[in-house]
# Entry
Amino acid sequence: MIAYRSQSVTKAADELDMTQSAVSNALARLKDNAGQELFARTGRGIKPTRFAQDLYDRLASPLLDIEACLSGLESFEPTQSQRSFVVYVHEGLIYTLQRALVNTAMPPGIDVVTKELPATEEEIYDDLSNEKVDLVIDVVKSTSRVYASQALTENKLCCVVRKGHPRLPNNSISKDQYLSEKHAILNLRRRSLPFVGWFVDEVLPQRAVHSQHSSLMGIMSAVSFSDAVATVPYHLALQYQDAFGLQVLDFPFDVDTYQSYLVWNSRMNQNKANLWLRELVSSLLEKDEPIVSTN
# Structure
């Protein structure tokens, strides 16, 4: 199962704390017993055959149920436990969650550490599988049965430009103006789509790029001293508009909100510690900034 999900003997060996040869031998025995090829070697990994895909589909759900059941037997009492949790959070919500955690009285032995999302989905889900992280808050939910997801918050998108922008003086921006301006963009793609492409219902033409950034804070800083336009979460724009000297404009598309999702490993569905953490994070973010117009 782990070799199938990771498509790598090396990663499977690391996760199982086995040698690569032991994993290879186990796969060879399974192949002999099944009488079918399970994997084909690729450049730096393995690719499951059709037989392996069918076998995985049949076994995945029952095995995950067993793992979840066993995980649920583990005891956890927050007031008596010593535990450090790790939560990956996308940049649009990480500061909100950090503030909420600072203002929350935690049990003395419990620590919740927030970290920005890794750059790639592969790393995110590898860390979930290897239990390097307990929860993920992301703008896309997993489509794999190995991971469970639930909707967490809905937040508004907006555009920001510097105050005194020569072509956008009226605190508004049309769709045509949006597409004609140069953009400071987030250098992050998920499922082959750029940041804004995750949210709008239409296929956007290629936009002129003023600059690319790895963070939303970097985007707002670049906009503050240029004529670039940027798309950012509304609550971040409100928080930093005075510091960066920004105008906050309505996002000129029909869909102007984005969803955040809580994602965890399905085998932790009934795990008492993970359940407690999910309930804590959900309760802290349920009173997040309301979705209101920027007008």
Notes: The longest helix spans residues 50-72. The chain has ten helices and 13 strands. The radius of gyration is 23 Å.
